[in-house]
Amino acid sequence: MLLSIFKLYPTEQDPVAYAIPFFILLILIEAYVGYKQQHRNYLSKDAAASIAMGIGSVLINFVMKSLAFGVYTIVYEFRLFEIGWHWWSWVLIFFADDFTFYWYHRFAHEIRILWAAHVNHHSSVEYSLSIALRQSWGELLFKYFFWLWLPVVGFPPMMVFMMISISLIYQFWVHTELIHKFPKWVEFIMNTPSHHRVHHASNYRYLDRNHAGILIIWDRMFGTFSEELDEEKPVFGITVNIHTFNPFKIASHEYIAIWHDILRAPTFKDKLNYIFQAPGWSHDGPDLRAKVLRKTVGNQQSTVSPQ
Known about the structure:
By secondary structure, the chain is an all-alpha fold. Helices cover 55% and strands 0% of the residues.
């Protein structure tokens, strides 16, 4: 049965394979510009850790993509509609994929066991194009379940994977500090470096904001949008930084933390909460979930007397 599901993913049809040389070129250009501007956005050990995570992700992803491609192909045989390869199919899947990515990405921040897989992408205190390569290993074990509904409704499996890759390519360039902001209409519709800097920030007001892939409209619609403020520069990293460049520690540290919390939890309910509640939940300590920490910012502002 496993062999019937496992189909080698046709990498020659993957847009990411053709984008890699441009990724490398843009990273080198950004590094040179950063060097000329004396901007510390390329710590060698940090960049090396990101590259190592990226290489591991590519290897794991080849296996998981092949498995997912096999499952999608089987599911597609029982599709509800015959969508096919048309120009309007690409319009539909563009929005369907981006909507799916938003919820997948949001859940990866709001459910701790999913956050354990996603957190490595946020673990660097630097912010540059090399960080886009710091891809998760654990996420690849479950992420494709979120897109399973697309072949069910009738999108061809290869079209689904091509759209996922196009979205990934788009998200590469937003990992930079060299671009400030675009005209307001662009910032209103599209995910931009400004919006994504907010997403990578550990400032309380910015926590769990701007989960967009390509379009920022989903964050605006579902209440997770935050503007990058000139008066509050994003501080990159996570609320408790891990201070390691070891890719295996980067990939596993939150899973280990969850396990320790499960061991000390007094009840079965508390053990489940440590797995499925938002990061920062505690049965005996302060509530450090993002939604609680953001409220402290609002409370502080409300207590400041007008000048």
